[in-house]
Amino acid sequence: MKDELILETITVTKNFFGDKSSGVNNVTVFIPKGKITGIVGESGSGKTSLLKLLSGHMKPDSGDVFFHGQPLPARTTNLQPEHGKITMVSQDNADMDTAATVWDNLGRSLPAEDVNYKIQKITQALNLLGIDDLRDQPFGKLSGGEKQRVTIARALINRPEVLMLDEPFNQVDANYREGLQHDIRQIVKEWGVTVVLVSHDPAELLSMADELIVIKEGEIVEHGSPEKLYETPKLLYTARILASCSEMTANQAKTCGIKSKRGTVVIYAEHVQIASSMSMGSKWLVKQVLYRGFYEELIVERNQVILRVYNYNLRKHPVGSKIGIKITKFYEFGRWLG
Ligand SMILES: Nc1ncnc2c1ncn2[C@@H]1O[C@H](COP(=O)(O)OP(=O)(O)OP(=O)(O)O)[C@@H](O)[C@H]1O
């Protein structure tokens, strides 16, 4: 069954300097209702611009944005009813009053007249994000993670249909981040709210998103499920963004025992196995050991070819030692595709 669409852009262009060097170009995207769509791309590729176009915060130079199949007016004119159905959370929390309490900040987007309704809505939002204990704290005194919870609670207080999240977990430490990600997934499931998520963190996008849109220099270059894009990326650009990988020319790949006729060979770190005996595989020099907690990421070298390898036998392969490796899978990309 086809997904019902809630938002779409049809050949939308927004250029900041009158040429294609910035902004977004000719972008057509479809946002399915009740799902999490992630937007991924390198810095400056146009992710935030696309989010602003989708939410009506920016007016396109050309092309159309549709919400439930109807043209979405830009917010540069008067606010329209549909604007309340699309809320956006940016990383800076700029529109929060730092001196006011969490309770008062949450109450701002609610009508003042109906006190009981207001109390009910604020209480509901506090419970939803698990921040009831913060209700009397001044917003400015909260930690980065707590601030993000309050900002998201406020964005959800009027039950929007679409929640746009621009790098929402940037300031949040790893433990807190997982809890917040889990809560957002729960809200999506229970409320059927649609989320559009911009993030730099591939792990976050892979675990949270139902669909991913890959943007490069203002153009959509690939889209699909996280599994599809991670496991069978069409573009070198996508593999680079989503995976911890090593990149080499076809000629260099011979050092890894790979025969390739294409321009570039890419090997994900998890597709390199450390051979149990030195007689197996080649002899690679361990140049760096990056400690990652329960595993290490080894940077190994042979004939000036660099490979990233995951090692779960901690401290077994120190810098300067040699290991044998076996490559279980690799990707080939033509030069013109990257
Ligand atoms: N208001 C603006 N005026 C001029 N140029 C802008 C404006 N907003 C964005 N740009 C430019 O448009 C391009 C895309 O910016 P955008 O913020 O959308 O990228 P991004 O992918 O979100 O980047 P990042 O990951 O670094 O946040 C960049 O070159 C940026 O400098």
How large is the share of residues in beta strands? Answer: 25-35%
Instruction: Quickly name the level 1 CATH class of the largest domain.
Output: Alpha Beta
CATH architecture of the largest domain: 3-Layer(aba) Sandwich
Ligands, deduplicated: adenosine-5'-triphosphate
Shape: globular
The structural class is alpha+beta
Q: And the CATH topology of the largest domain?
A: Rossmann fold
Order of helices and strands: EEEHEEEHHHEHEHEEHHEHEEEEEEEE
Mean pLDDT: 89
Number of domains: 2
| Poorly predicted runs of 5 or more residues | none
How many DSSP helices?
9
Share in helix: 10-25%
Instruction: Count every beta strand, where a strand is a DSSP E run of 2 or more residues.
Output: 19
Keywords: ATP-binding, Nucleotide-binding, Transport
Organism: Mucilaginibacter achroorhodeus
Domain ABC transporter: 7-242
Protein name: ABC transporter ATP-binding protein
